[in-house]
Structure formats: structure tokens, C-alpha cells
Design brief:
Layout lengths: L1 H18 L5 E4 L3 E3 L4 H8 L5 E5 L2 E5 L5 H9 L9
Antiparallel strand pairs: 1-2, 3-4
Amino acid sequence: MALMIATLIERQLRLAMEKHSIESLPIYPEQRPCPSPTVFDIVRLFKSVEKYEVLQDEAITVFPAHLSQLQKQVLELLEVPRISYQ
């Protein structure tokens, strides 16, 4: 099941790149171009993203994730709403 989901994520991103005439994304280390991103490349891109919610006296304080332009672009291409990270 996990392999199928990983494959669908890769397919979605690659099709979106093709649709938007994007030949590669700079998601390899040192921001090198990646013409065919794998799920491992995508996970590595988001590995440092953190969002916190703190409950104090029945009030929730949210510390949203800070996303780079590249991370925002990948989320758009994958059709993942950024609200999930805010």
C-alpha cells in the first residue's frame, strides 16, 4: 500500500511538472536540478518542516511551519493545500 501511494505521489508531481513545462526542480542536495523526483527526494525536501500547537490555559497557540518557495511550489504541484502547514 505504501509503495502504491509513493508511486502516485511521484506520478502526480511529474505530471504536474510536465503540464507546467517544468523540466526539473532544484530538490537534489545543493539545489541541483532533479528532472524526475522520487518520493524520497520529496520527503527529504520536507524533512525539516515543523508545525507546533501549544495548549495553555485552554488557549491554543499555533506556530505555523515556515515553507521555502520550493516547498510551496511542490505543494502546489501536488495539489496539497498549504493550510495544512499553517
